[in-house]
Design brief:
0% of the residues lie in helices and 50% in strands. The chain is mainly β and 125 residues long. The strands form two sheets. Strands 2, 4, 5, 6, 9, 10 and 11 form a seven-stranded mixed β-sheet that branches. It has a four-stranded antiparallel β-sheet with strand order 1-3-8-7, with no helix packed on it. The N and C termini lie far apart (40 Å).
Length: 125
């Protein structure tokens, strides 16, 4: 299995940027697809961004396309989410998830087996 720990959340003004990190421990980090999800107060958890095992493919929710960028560094067992041009709708708890590939290859429909505990991002007006 793999353990995931998110960091980098905090309070930021609208228009600002944050970089979230997902530190992983365990075997075969490069075997997993990695995704970032978020859950706003009173809302369901939603997909934000996903990345393939070797980082060659990425996918984003329409709401963050062009503003967020997902990346990974398998040599250091880490994944990242660079968030730019943040607005109030981005306020949420952000989670890192890891999925063992199976079935069809659709990053936006990934269902991680392992999750971090989340990091809170709050965007002020």
């Amino acid at each position: 299995q793999v353990q995931l720990v998110e960091s980098g959340g905090g309070l930021v003004q609208a228009g600002g940027s944050l970089r979230l990190s997902c530190a992983a421990s365990g075997r075969s980090f490069g075997t997993y697809r990695i995704g970032w999800f978020r859950q706003a107060p009173g809302k369901a958890r939603e997909f934000v961004a996903g990345i393939s095992r070797n980082g060659g493919d990425t996918a984003y929710a329409d709401s963050v396309q062009g503003r967020f960028s997902i990346s990974r560094d398998n040599a250091n067992n880490a994944a990242y989410l660079q968030m730019n041009s943040l607005n109030s709708e981005d306020t949420a708890v952000y989670y890192c998830g890891a999925e063992w590939p199976s079935g069809v290859y659709v990053l936006k429909a990934m269902n991680p087996e392992y999750w971090g505990k989340g990091t809170l991002v709050t965007v002020s007006q």
